[in-house]
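Hey, resending since the last one bounced:
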Amino acid sequence: MVIFRIAVGMAGALGVLWVLSAAVRTVLVPRAETSLVNRALFATMRRLFYLGSRVRTEPSARDAVLARFAPTTLVMLPVLWSAGLIAGFAAIFWAVDADRTLRDAVALSGSSLTTLGFRSADDGISVLLAIGEALIGLGIVALLISFMPTIYSAFSRREAAVYRLSIQVETDFGTSPHAVLLVRWWQVGAVDRLNELWREWEDWFIHMAEAQTSFPALNFFRSPQSNRHWVTTSGMALDTAAIYLSTLNVHQDASAALMIRTGYLSLRQVADYFAIDYDHDPSPDRPISITRDEFLEVYDELAAAGVPVRANREQAWRDYAGWRVNYDEVLLDLAALTHAPHAPWSSDRALSDTKMKVWRPYALLQQRRNNDAQST
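The structure tokens again:
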């Protein structure tokens, strides 16, 4: 019996250390570290909220359900940690006192963690353990007080740039949003100032990758407007820069190219955290999810609006595809992972796994590639 109590106490101590490790890695460690406890909770809640969204018919209603997923799960994290600490310390309290029942050990542990004081320890070792558990409980509260403002500060910074770009490309039905920004800036004579936009989004991608790998829950925080999303807006920025480089016949510096490189590397960094498989070194002539006809439609819209475009349409298409191939796969995978709202050239062709066991990146696109290869 003594050996069994010792084993239970050691298991409880390991459980406490495991929970503390999960809390520290989630809140304090400034790098992309994973925790099995946190991942299990997020995976379970993600499945439940996704299933809940499927019963809604309106896109805005589905988005409203999914928007509650990340905040709700974050609120549940301290509940899960507290439950683990109470269970771990209860096992320790039960192990150090042969006369203490398991029920009394749980009550003492709960009283100590919450500092409510409805149950007190009798012996010296238990008193020290109770003080230690109370301090840990206060530390968890302090961590959360600092954690939530950090999360929402990063969210606010991310969404400010998303809103600025989204509102510039909003357009009537039938007009490609990828052409809108370039047409509008050309019409007001501000094409040269696009370099400022590329630099802004280069900084945005750097901040996004750092914040959303340090705080993975941020990836699932949705925009205040149901038709906007950080993944689809990322695709919009990258595609607009790729069209600018490949199609416009204007003076260009390195800003757009640097933004695209920073962008796809940042998206890949997020994908790496979620263990999403993708081609790290795709060939420039590898098929992409955007068809030639879709690109030429944008090309024609730009030309019709008076924007100077390159004369060789086929070369423009090949150049665009050469840029897009760097972020095409990972963009679609992240859109599927986060259930991004419908948007052209990104989430409209991403595939989500309805069973929610794993996401199946690129299954439909690979089938399209095989069909294209056979047809050529």
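Residues 170-375 form one domain.

Sorry for the duplicate.
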